[in-house]
Every structure is written in structure tokens, then in C-alpha cells.
Amino acid sequence: MSAGLAIELKIGDVVEPGWLPLFPARFALEGAYRRSLGWNEGDEGAPSSDASEGDFAAVLAAYVGACWGGDPLELTRHTSTGPEVVVVPPSPAAIRAFGRDLVAFGEAVLDAMARLGHSPADVFEAGQQARRLILLSIPLQAEVEESADFSEGPAAASIESTSR
């Protein structure tokens, strides 16, 4: 685990190791979070759809699962042939095991956390904490532009062909 991505997840009274997922997963989680609240692409000022309490709860748990750095989790994936248990290490593989369906992933994480003795309320709070850390880790466009070095490069060297 890269030290720059390392975080701690506090779930109830337990502190678990964790890390920030890579940027594509961070963006996907935030998109799923907003959709669970009824926001759609292009909405401004107010969501255009109804919120889904179940999806919201699942996405909060998905934040925990995506940041999980503890022992491998036993997640139940529901398929057309019935449920199957998938043991996933802490990594992007956990989300990929669910075809990047963050609601299904979060539902499985919440069940796994309950089996580990964590209450749903504690998992939801940990999910909110993980979301805050993820949002803080994403630089704003203004920050990127401010820190970018737009100075002129070195004087151009000759780029003539070396073959004659």
C-alpha cells in the first residue's frame, strides 16, 4: 500500500487500515452517491429524480469496502444461478468482482461488516468519513492550474535528422 494513499477507517470503536482507491473508483463512488440522492447528469440546483434510501445506504457501505485495508472480505454476490461467496483482498479487485456495480458491492460489504460485528450505523458513519477523505483527495481544477508549471521550456535544441 502506498503511504500517500493510506488512511484509517474508524468503524465504531475499531480502527481498520485502509487506503484511498484510485481516481476512477473515487469518481465512480461520488457519482453513485449523487445518483442515490436523485441527482442526474446536468442537474443544477436540485436533483431531478427521487432519492433511494436503499441505494444511499449501499453506497455508503461501498465507500468503506473500496477503502478497506483489513483482512480479505467474504462478500456475497448474487448471480442468475444464485448467491456465491467471493473472497476479495483489499484492492480494486473487490469492486471489479461486482462488475463495478457499486450498489451491489455496497450491499455485500454491509452484510460482511455485520458478520464482523459492526452495526449498520457504524458502517454508514465510516462511509461518510471515507467519502470526506476521498473528496479532500481530489484536487480542484483551480488547484491544478495554480500548481502547474507553465514556464517556458528550455531553448529548443536542433531536431535535424541524423540520417543522411
Task: Walk me through what this model shows.
With 164 residues, this protein is α+β, with helices and mostly antiparallel strands. It has one domain. Helices cover 44% and strands 16% of the residues. The chain is built from 6 helices and 4 strands; from the N terminus they run E-E-H-H-E-E-H-H-H-H. The chain has helices at residues 23-36, 53-67, 93-96, 102-115, 120-137, 141-147, and strands at residues 6-11, 14-19, 73-79, 82-88. A two-stranded antiparallel ribbon has the order 1-2.
Topology:
Blueprint: E1 6-11, E2 14-19, H1 23-36, H2 53-67, E3 73-79, E4 82-88, H3 93-96, H4 102-115, H5 120-137, H6 141-147
Helix pairs in contact: 1-2, 2-4, 2-5
Q: What is the overall pLDDT average?
A: 88
Number of domains: 1
Structural class: alpha+beta
Please give the alpha-carbon distance between the first and last residues: 51 Å
* Poorly predicted runs: none
Spatial sequence of strands, sheet with the most strands:
1-2
Give me the strand/helix succession: EEHHEEHHHH
Shape: globular
Q: How many helix segments?
A: 6
The quaternary state of the protein chains shown equals single chain
Give the total of beta strands.
4
Report strand %.
15-25%
Report on the biggest sheet.
2 strands, antiparallel
For the CA atoms, what is the radius of gyration?
Answer: 20 Å
- Helicity range of the residues? 40-55%
